[in-house]
Fold this protein.
Amino acid sequence: MSGILDIVYAEYNYWIYVTLMMIGFYAMIAKKNLIKKVIGANIFQTAIFLFYISLSDVTGGTAPILMGGHGGEHAADVIYTNPVPHVLILTAIVVAVSTTAVALALIIRIYNEYGSLDEDVIRAARRELQPEFSEHARQKSVAEVSEQ
Amino acid sequence: MIGFDLIAPHLPVLTVVVPLIAGFLTPIIGWIDRRLPWYWVVLAMFVVLLIAGNNLVTVINSGTIQYKLGGWDPPFGIEYVIDLLNGFVCLIIAFIAFMVSIYSKESVKKEVPGKTTPFYAVFLLLITGLMGMTITGDIFNFYVFLEISSLTAYALIAMGDRGDGVVASFNYLIMGTVAASFILLGIGYLYAVTGTLNMADMQNILPGVYESKVVLAALAFFMVGFSIKVGLFPLHSWLPDAYTHAPSTASALIAGLMTKVGAYAMIRFMFGVFTPDFVINTTQMTNILAWAAALAIIVGSVLAIAQSDIKRMLAYSSISQIGYILLGVGLANMIGMEGGLLHLLNHALMKCALFLVAGAIFYKTGIRNLYQFKGLGKKMPVTTTVFLIAALSMIGVPGTVGFTSKWYLALGSVDAGQWIFVFVILLSSLLNIVYFWRIFDNIWFGHPHEIENIKRDEAPLTMLVPMVILAVLCVFFGFFAYYPVHYVIEPLSEALLGLGGVLSR
């Protein structure tokens, strides 16, 4: 038992990100409510951000700002954390925010149209509202033509 | 031409910058006069077409172009690389987008009334995203452009059919977010093992760490992510709704380009980030891809037969056609690869023409149910002739583009010793005849009683011209497939399969 715990503890950051990711993924696929799907997407993306951030950490590293910079002599033996993933994630956060914004805008329009955010209700409403291209309509149009 | 000398070294980046700037200026242009955005978009797309054409000619004549953004050297800064592969794809994007932009004038005015200016702004941003995805040599930059193109595609689809369009867009958004997140995760994995984001640099470093399971996981994430993006069979559920309910112009653009760029990205990551030997022999990824593609070809064709909405039928047909492209890539021999890459061009031409025809018919009659198309052959002779040519090309009648690429694919399958794929291609062609024949039958032979009273009522000229050009090209490249094959596709296939050539530096 302690063996497994040791494995989990040694790389607990990865375990956390995988767990979060699966929670988000589950919500995106299984939840019927559209808002919950968007929340799931956010958790999913945040989990990936955490993965990138924990990736960039270097044991004993400090913030990636030049020590003794600004005219002074650069300290050569300082260990810095990797700044690149942080920068990447700043960009990815912006992308995630815009995705969420678009999703919420779509949800508002869906709600105005169907009066519900539940997937099943929307599907039922669509089937009722749009018989135009359904199999029933096709047979009807075929029947109309053959009558002539 | 003093000015041109100043611009010439920056032409690679201008393929992305021109539509970007033009996109952000569109609201101002539209504020001055609501009729202007169309002229503005056509102008911008024409400029992009010239630049993309010039880039490809430069690549053919003098080899790969590298452009360092901001003057930073490649492994550290972002680099744009144009080789034959993305020069070719860029030209397809620019050409299709130019055609669609000409076509869009009347269609957009009717289908998205009052929102033409935002439509055109988003249109240009979509082109920015697709161009950026294609041209960049940096995988994180690639991800950002991927999201730009996805977000703008969601917006375009949501402008379509009231209600349905929005729901389709939302479903696409959820699927697209999963795909993009998988790709982001894959990029993270590769960065973790190589410490670089530059594609060429990564390709040099990766062979040393192929033992690592992280690299395998990254490859799996990329393949699943791109499979969602291109709508490969089991992951295609977003595609039919999105294509059906988008405005006609957006359908043509998205069907013609989005999946092609996804397929390009798949090829680029398989052969330009990982090495051919790794994907072909070590992991058997191309083999898996070929079988998945064969499945997609059959299932897409069968599902297309069941549809009565023409746009939905074309969407399912897209799923099967994407299968052709990926089958060619999956065969991983010279001829198969040539067929797949040729089909990238051919399918963009054919499918774009078909969606434009569907849009023109919808514009004139408001009908999308193909059982109500009776008498259209007399009412809209030019439009339906374009449809005939593009559909025959889709079936693969000799003398059209569809035949050349299917021929190459069949030869490639024989070459690989996979006779079952030859059978799949033949079967799918037969199924294509079945679902297109229903439409031919209705358009020309299903005469309603008042056939004498049908007046000729053709679509406006701005719609006809691009459709006719695409149809002519469908036939032209059917007879003269030599030009793209000789100048681009042959050297490209050699390079991709690691037989020496442009991609490796």
